[in-house]
Design goal:
Distance between the termini: 31 Å
Strand content: 15-25%
Number of helices: 9
CATH architecture of the largest domain: 3-Layer(aba) Sandwich
Shape: globular
Number of domains: 2
Radius of gyration: 18 Å
Helix content: 25-40%
Number of strands: 9
Order of helices and strands: EEHEHEHEHHEHEHEHHE
């Protein structure tokens, strides 16, 4: 897991003042950026004696972390239970089941509700004594992105970066990469790409939470900031609506030959905005978080 390509988006970036470079995390074995974190958390738990073959893992996931966990669980002899909110695609549920995970789908509910997917996973862990990776709080999550994803980006760019922009689901990718870049490239701008309707952009910009809205992009955005999202490392935020995110996915597929999902569209749309509007001394780097195969049943992909 890791060692993914960094590619220049030559068509989408044509005419912009600086290049746009995309880290192809959809090329990981499980098809997403979450593979790195899933393996790192389970490695850490096993090393500390918290996890042994035969044990059950339960995790709240938008789907991609579940796939990464399922790959490791299959090899190491763990049982896996994944709790997903119902907004997540049927394709993700089926992928998890094919990998041997038990899938529990719960209503889309606010963080304060008992039936919220994170609260449900926490309750199951308590009731059954199952191991909970807790990707939203686990420090192994940003740590693996600091030491692998961030380090790879620095090596692949020769340390010349104008800005790094990415969405935040758990916050691990943005925080971890930001730590690595802020040390090596202190002038690089760190920017959150956030779906319109998420409360995170306002929180980054002002420190306050606005009303939580709805959006179709999966895996990024939140009504409450995750513990692994370090606001002190982030300079700015760019909001991207669903229509622009999905239009950018289509461009990535048709113009760049990159088969990616909705959050990748959000990230690249935000990168284009930054390249146009922010004075930068170097390329904008972003992340292609997962592949399009997990969204083939979604309404926004129909009619292509």
């Amino acid at each position: 897991m890791g060692g993914t390509p960094l590619v220049q988006l030559r068509h989408i970036g044509a005419g912009l003042p600086v290049p746009i470079l995309a880290k192809c995390e959809h090329c990981n074995p499980g098809g997403s950026v979450k593979d790195r974190m899933a393996k790192a958390i389970l490695d850490d738990a096993a090393a500390r004696g918290l996890l042994h073959p035969g044990m059950t893992i339960v995790e709240a996931t938008a789907g991609n972390t579940g796939v990464g966990l399922a790959l490791v669980a299959a090899v190491r002899g763990y049982r896996l239970v994944c709790v997903l909110p119902e907004k997540m695609s049927v394709d993700k549920r089926e992928s998890l089941r094919l990998l041997g995970a038990e899938v529990i789908v719960v209503p889309n509910a606010p963080p304060s509700a008992p039936e919220n997917f994170r609260n449900t996973a926490a309750r199951l862990a308590r009731e059954h004594g199952w191991f909970a990776p807790q990707q939203f709080e686990n420090p192994a999550n940003p740590a693996v992105h600091e030491h692998t994803t961030g380090a790879e980006i620095l090596a692949q760019t020769g340390g010349r970066i104008g800005a790094f922009v990415a969405g935040a689901g758990t916050g691990g990718t943005l925080t971890g990469v930001a730590r690595a870049l802020r040390r090596a490239c202190p002038d690089a701008k760190i920017v959150l790409a956030d779906p319109t309707g998420s409360a995170l952009a306002q929180w980054i910009e002002t420190g306050t939470l606005g009303p939580d809205g709805s959006y179709l992009v999966e895996g990024i955005g939140a009504s409450v900031p995750p513990a692994n999202l370090d606001r002190t490392l982030v300079h700015a935020a760019v909001s991207v609506d669903d229509a622009d995110s999905f239009a950018m996915v289509r461009r990535l597929v048709r113009e760049e030959g990159l088969l990616v999902g909705g959050s990748s569209g959000t990230n690249v749309a935000a990168a284009v905005t930054l390249a146009r509007t922010m004075p930068l001394d170097g390329p904008v780097v972003t992340v292609l978080a997962d592949g399009w195969d997990r969204y083939r049943s979604q309404a926004w992909m129909r009619g292509w």
